[in-house]
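Example record

The entry below shows one chain as it appears in the dataset: sequence first, then structure tokens.
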Amino acid sequence: MFWTGELIAKTAPVRRRATSAHPPHIDRGIAAYLGLAIGDALGATVEFLTPNEIRHQIGLHSEITGGGWLRLKAGQVTDDTTMSLALGDSIIASGGVHAKPIAEAFDAWMRAKPVDIGNTVRRNLVTFRKTGNPEAAQSEHDAGNGAAMRVLPVALACYGQPENSSILANHAQAHVTHHNLLSDAACETLIFMVQDFLAGRDPIDVERERVGKLVSAFPVFAYDKRLRENPSGFVVDTLQAVFQSFFATETFEDCLIDVVNRGGDADTTGAIAGMLAGARYGLDSIPKRWLKAVDEKIRSQCEAQALALLSGFSLSI
């Protein structure tokens, strides 16, 4: 386990909502989706800043205020959340996780002019338009975090199914834009971690089994060597920062504050950390001020999609 050795400033205690009427795994699934959007909106403000620049300009960044290089409105999200929602809509509409409908959904998303789009995503979606082939060519250069940031709908849709179903489903979504071994390994690890937390597994066991297996197979992901600050869009940097924050904190709020204040690709590290923390800690762990700050339409879409994907959804792979 990696500890930064820094104490995170505490905010006012969070008031707890009434007990959810949903089964625990659905409560955690909704929290994971809301956590993704919250982490995205929180991190976007400080994306591409270094930790020193954040400290100098803001102090400790802990509120959803918008701004940043994208000049977002407070509560607005980026491609991390909107691509996830596009993927989830495709899964629900087609009744499965299939590459062609997913590629078409991503293409429609790009045509709608999102506030941000990664270079690898753009390049391979343009190729899909030209060729009609929904699977990008395998490339060692496509190890960005663009497929990992949007895995949540696959994790929810495949919950309770054999692990191979999640692997195949991830290939269908990830390879549209990121056909890369490191990206695949990161995506699969995140999917299984989310599913483990939905099932109520202990974080120590999840870290040992899922993250330990990832590092054993791909030692480049080792996250106990040095503090990962200012993480780039390289999926290894992203997961190192996320794992350090996630396993060294004890609450949803502390996890997200820790990870976004590392700067760099902070909307994506925030989104992934929020997804994991929501699945781990559940709805009652999410600060109300953050929930209220996120765009209301996005919040409703996240909640509805999580329910649809987890409530008796009939899936084909």
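Notes for this example: Residues 1-18 have pLDDT under 50 and may be disordered. Residues 40-310 form a domain with the ADP-ribosylglycohydrolase fold fold (CATH 1.10.4080.10).
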